[in-house]
Amino acid sequence: MKWQELEQENCSLARAMAVVGDRWTLLVLREAFLRVRRFDDLQERLGIARRVLTERLRHLVDHGVLEKVAYSQTPLRHEYRLTEKGLGLYPVIIGLVHWGDAHYAGKKGPPLLHRHKACGHDFRSVVTCSECGEPVDARSVTSHPGPGARAGEWDGRLTD
Amino acid sequence: MKWQELEQENCSLARAMAVVGDRWTLLVLREAFLRVRRFDDLQERLGIARRVLTERLRHLVDHGVLEKVAYSQTPLRHEYRLTEKGLGLYPVIIGLVHWGDAHYAGKKGPPLLHRHKACGHDFRSVVTCSECGEPVDARSVTSHPGPGARAGEWDGRLTD
DNA sequence: TCGATTAAGTCTTGAATTAAGACTAAGTCA
DNA sequence: TGACTTAGTCTTAATTCAAGACTTAATCGA
């Protein structure tokens, strides 16, 4: 299967991966969340090949994850900002960061802490259920076909 | 920068991406969460090149995300199961799925629903603060260096 | 017994993608 | 005018991937 064919799959994860699923994109978005928005800054901080960065930024703009905004008219210069759709990826980023913290931080602890402005504490992210508010993990969930499931593509494996 | 150099970076996201950040790995893990655990089943359902699947599974086993477990002695056959560390990626997967649902589901709705066993409802994942329990989004968080930050690698941009 | 089947890979080849860094274009600054 | 800045484009060699044929070792069915 070619990469962009993923977009056609009847799976929200596959469709999301078609947008942000390559080796560099989430790192570019990390920088965007850290307010690094300019081409040269991104290139230097990430060590990414310029051609690849060009292509990724275009892809993200095309998919509405970033938008290209002029920050100077003379000379005309642009920066890349997260859209609302892009900000919606925060749970993914923070989830990966906390997984990395849990398994790869050295003895001293994580390199970066995250503070919740509202309560003032450094926190870990906790995934909870939108319906009952309790924490959710892999073992407490079952999956079943939704209204958008394509006929014939469900094999019943998960109906336990 | 080469891919595996990411592991050396002083950033939990980069370290996490070094393990699960390529085009296929999260799709392989999606299948693992859906209890698809055998080589041929994974290969067929994903349409991934067999050589690449071999390499990814080895990588995930090497990093303790999956473990290779014998399910038959004669003939000797193995399957790939999520470890506790692998189960810890559930927030990332569900975050991507819900982002995909929000932005790429068709008119009919998402292809797959997720039910919280404890309360019995289909749910969306909500990321909350471990300290105060309130929902958290990108705008309600600031980041600052933690105990594991390497001297000289922090540039102060985020201390707002 | 013997051929077919199954599972889990390995191998080969051509195509696509990436890393690294030189080069370019357009405008500003001293 | 000449140096500098920003945001790219271009080139080349190395790496990775897609597709699918092939392999190995054991079981199954006739």
- Biggest sheet of chain A, strands in spatial order? 1-2
| Integer tally of domains of chain A | 1
Number of helices of chain A: 6
Radius of gyration of chain A: 19 Å
CATH fold description of chain A:
Arc Repressor Mutant, subunit A
* Strand percentage of chain A: 15-25%
Helix content, binned percent of chain A: 25-40%
Summarize the largest interface: chains and residue counts.
Answer: A-B, 90 and 90 residues
Identify the CATH class of chain A.
Mainly Alpha
- What is the 3D shape of chain A? globular
Identify the quaternary structure here: homodimer
List its salient traits.
homodimer, 160 residues, alpha+beta, Arc Repressor Mutant, subunit A, 6 helices, DNA-binding
SSE topology:
The structure is a homodimer of 160-residue chains.
Chain A: H1 12-20, H2 25-33, H3 39-46, H4 50-62, E1 66-72, E2 77-82, H5 84-87, H6 90-104, E3 112-116, E4 125-129, E5 141-145
The first copy, chain A, binds a DNA duplex (30 and 30 nucleotides) through helix 3 and helix 4.
